[in-house]
Amino acid sequence: EGTAESLLNNVNDNLRKVEEAVNVELSCFAHQAVRCSLKDLVPYNLTEGWSEEAKAEFCSVVGSAAVEMRPLGQDRDSLLVDLRKAPMEQSTDVPFSVREYLVFIEVARFYSPVTLGRRPLMYYPPVYPEASKELDAVVCHINNLSDFYIQLVDNMESLLLSAKLQDCYNALTEDKLRVYCPVIGQACVARFEDELWYRAQVIGHPGGRKVEVRYVDFGNKQILSVSDLRKIKDEFFALPAMVRAHQNM
């Protein structure tokens, strides 16, 4: 009871009636806050409505920093918008739609189809050796006899790349370079079963906050949690993919 009374006293100490003259002056200013709604987005479970998890995820991704807003229409007393998380300084970082992120983590659904209007940056293709030239190579991944991947033995860049990747990404905090909404074709860095980091490319969305990637320097594929992805830094993006695919037609 004492706590409630103390709280009430604090509120009263900070409340003041607005004088009529001031009220008139303030009436000339429009409201500074605009009611908004994420366009075409509905709860993942329509019968239960918006979950606390959806609200928490929305608050987490939006945070207190400024976001890019795209007005997409108006519905009664709400402005229909999409919000995009502002990119970081590096050129390989792509702004992502908050709507698409909430759909990807399965706390929301799209009410109607949405066309994705962005194209992620992709790796440079591998450099193929000249025809009829003899080279030393290692077969690093086999799907079958008509589809396997090789690395050239004399290519020391792969060893240096791997060492630098581990040094860089093991030093990151959990949220640093986090991927929120992976796009098909997106270049990234992914953690493999051996707990090491490798360059990868997003190739599928199997659901359940999972993502399918192909490790571009080895050729193998893996389905893993989106929490095992990180954005790729410029210094690791410039090198072409290290493996060459060999397919017998």
Automatic annotation (TrEMBL):
<dbReference type="InterPro" id="IPR002999">
    <property type="entry name" value="Tudor"/>
</dbReference>
<dbReference type="Pfam" id="PF00567">
    <property type="entry name" value="TUDOR"/>
</dbReference>
<dbReference type="InterPro" id="IPR035437">
    <property type="entry name" value="SNase_OB-fold_sf"/>
</dbReference>
<feature type="domain" description="Tudor">
    <location>
        <begin position="181"/>
        <end position="239"/>
    </location>
</feature>
<protein>
    <recommendedName>
        <fullName>Tudor domain-containing protein</fullName>
    </recommendedName>
</protein>
